[in-house]
Amino acid sequence: MRCRCWLSVGLGFLLLWGSGGVWALGSACAQEPDRRVGMVLAQFEEARALAVDPRGRLYVAEAGRDVIGIFEADGTRRNALGGAGTRPGEFDAPSDMDPTNGQLLLVADTYNGRLQRFSTEGQYLESMPIGPTERRTGGEWTFQERRSGAPVQGQGRPIEVARDDEGAVFVLDAHGRRVWKWSDLGQSETLVPGRDGRLQDPVAMAVGADGRLYVADAGGDAVFVYDTFGTFRRRVLGGSLPALQALTVHRGQLWIVCARRVLVWDRTEGIVAEHTVDLSEPLVDVAVHGNRVYLLTETRLLRRAAWE
């Protein structure tokens, strides 16, 4: 669904930063109430992921327009990164992003088979191809600036990206049905195997501050827990998680997002809360900041008070 506020967007400030395709818009659509949930902050075409940085800014991967939208907590659009293409700073169906350290933004550029890295100001920095390790030399998995010439592209299909407190980057590759890990020293490894291992149809991933890696597997109808070395630890609620959509970690607890509900899981206590979400379309993702919960569907971003 396209945003109805074409006039305000048309009058917004548009800034194009070089050939990277990085641009910013002015104010977002006017907010409107949703009586069942809360305030509608913005509207999209095929939104796929939601994240929040330490300052409370919101990031939405909008695959339908090939952009990453950046918003203030009240829904005001600060800028948007991308546009369709293969050049640096452009995307082909971006599926996820990680802004959580507040210093860099990592974007899973899915059908270009790469990660892209941006500064906090939205400036394109470099890209990294995602694909089989045998296509690299010496086990290295390095970012490349490549601002001119052939674009950086890989054979993988990155759909999730997360960075831990040690600086390691984790990538969920839907093509290989596996998790890659890239250390801050530039070494890569297959952390969780795919076709010949446990994962059948992985759809989401999150990294906790407790050194745990969580992978939602729609094929196994469960969430698998690993340590950050890839050692399997446990299975969460196998057989009772229909329509798995996303995972996020908040205050040490895992939030499991399904199409119509959100489960909160604790390592020691198990499921500690279950929240049913009454929306006209399925949930895609959830983010929490302060006393607010943000809900994302394919077409809307909503804000409500935190669940008790």
Describe the structure.
A hairpin with a 4-residue loop joins β11 and β12. The chain has one domain: Neuraminidase (6 Propeller), CATH 2.120.10.30. The strands form seven sheets. Strands 3-4-27-26-25 form a five-stranded antiparallel β-sheet, with no helix packed on it. A four-stranded antiparallel β-sheet has the order 5-6-7-8, with no helix packed on it. It has a four-stranded antiparallel β-sheet with strand order 9-10-11-12, with no helix packed on it. The two termini are 32 Å apart. It is globular. The chain has 308 residues and is mainly β.
The count of domains is: 1
Any guess at the CATH architecture? 6 Propeller
- The strand line-up of the biggest sheet is 3-4-27-26-25
Query: Can you give the helix content as a percent range?
Result: under 10%
Mean pLDDT across all residues, rounded?
82
What is the succession of H and E elements?
A: HEEEEEEEEEEEEEEEEEEEEEEEEEEE
Low-pLDDT stretches are 1-35, 133-139
- CATH topology tier name: Neuraminidase
Strand content: over 45%
- How far do the termini sit from each other? 32 Å
Q: State the secondary-structure class.
A: mainly beta
CATH level 4 superfamily = TolB, C-terminal domain
Gyration radius over CA? 19 Å
Overall 3D form: globular
Largest sheet: 5 strands, antiparallel
Q: What is the CATH C level class, in words?
A: Mainly Beta
Number of strands: 27
Number of helices: 1
